[in-house]
Amino acid sequence: MNQPTLLTSQIRDVVFGKDVKVVQPVNLYDCSIGDNCFIGPFVEIQSNAIVGNRTRVQSHSFICDGVTIGEDCFIGHGVMFINDVFSGGGPAGDRNAWKKTIIGNGVSIGSNATLLPVSICDGVVIGAGAVVTKDIQEKGIYAGNPARLLRRL
Amino acid sequence: MNQPTLLTSQIRDVVFGKDVKVVQPVNLYDCSIGDNCFIGPFVEIQSNAIVGNRTRVQSHSFICDGVTIGEDCFIGHGVMFINDVFSGGGPAGDRNAWKKTIIGNGVSIGSNATLLPVSICDGVVIGAGAVVTKDIQEKGIYAGNPARLLRRL
Amino acid sequence: MNQPTLLTSQIRDVVFGKDVKVVQPVNLYDCSIGDNCFIGPFVEIQSNAIVGNRTRVQSHSFICDGVTIGEDCFIGHGVMFINDVFSGGGPAGDRNAWKKTIIGNGVSIGSNATLLPVSICDGVVIGAGAVVTKDIQEKGIYAGNPARLLRRL
Questions:
Q1: How far is C97 from chain A (nearest CA, A)?
Q2: Which among B17, B59, B128 is the nearest to C116, CB-wise?
Q3: Please, what are the averages of pLDDT over each run of 10 residues along chain C (153 residues)?
Q4: Which of A10, A17, B124, C152 has its CA 20 to 30 A from that of B143?
Q5: Complex-level ipTM
Q6: CA distance B64 to B47
Q7: Across the A/B interface, how many CB contacts are shorter than 8 Å?
Q8: Can you list the domains of chain B with their CATH numbers?
């Protein structure tokens, strides 16, 4: 009988700001989390991700390598970020092929939303269950699969 | 180096009915769970949520404050409920602005479905991956983003 | 006060190949996981599921009873498989009514994708957030809800 190598979710090499709250279990490593942030349970945040001050990351969300989230953002439950768009027909063997995501300040992302590698400007609202496939440069509410502007803010 | 405040997922101040099974880890607090319910792993259920008798909540689901689920329901995996629709362009600062969800009896909700604050009548089926944005008052199968009636039952 | 029966996520009766890595917590039981696989945190894999050699299953995914995944596949984060389509208007009481899913080799499935019981041929890419409702027999990139062919590969 083969036995697997068992690793355990952990908090490793994370740079925390002041007054951060984390609800375990989580898997956070090599990332930066600003002042007064909240990180809910069952969250994974990977290397090189940056979460700005006063941003809340709710349960079940996944923030991948290459994502920068601004200040005063709200990341709902079950939100998934993506850095590899399988442009060669499958996973990029080389992490240099991973793409970056930049989320501005005061952005609110609804639960179960999915974000391809994009830039989103300040103050945008992404509806629950939306799939964001393109950059968003105008403040407004976006929803659907693929996400489209519902109304300006 | 700042250290975060570490909290841990738990079962706190939950009113359980008879013969409930819970698969840990879960984060359940200040909520009510009826007789003969099943709660799978990696589930979060918040304050003031009510889960009716014989309802099953599968892994990875999130039930928020203000949700009432009837009896004999099936909540699939990765189902997310929502109480704050960011109507002011971001999270409501005041929980009095949160909206309620009422799920009837015998409702089945497919995996990865997302439910905005709505009322759903008895016996409805919500397809996997659906995003429910409006009340449902007719028994049937609903799917898509936004969810639409596929066929009556 | 009633007390629930508390079970705990575990690794039970799993047949592992060589050099598998698993990041706990996970809930894996009665399933088969091939050589050189990776299983991320917060993953559930149920009885009778088969995961082929060198396939990676990322965090938050759920693989149900009746799913067979080929070799060299990438299962993203928050991917949900389904075996019960509620064809009688709710959960099948009888597991013989559950349907099977067959995923070929070299298939890449984007994060937050949802898969109804289907067959998918080798080399397919499923976009993030897609809801796959039909068999896929042609190599290509499929996305949307319901998933449609975006382009051939």
A1: 29
A2: B128
A3: 96 98 98 98 98 98 98 98 94 92 98 98 98 98 98 94
A4: C152
A5: 0.96
A6: 7
A7: 109
A8: 11-86+95-152 (2.160.10.10)
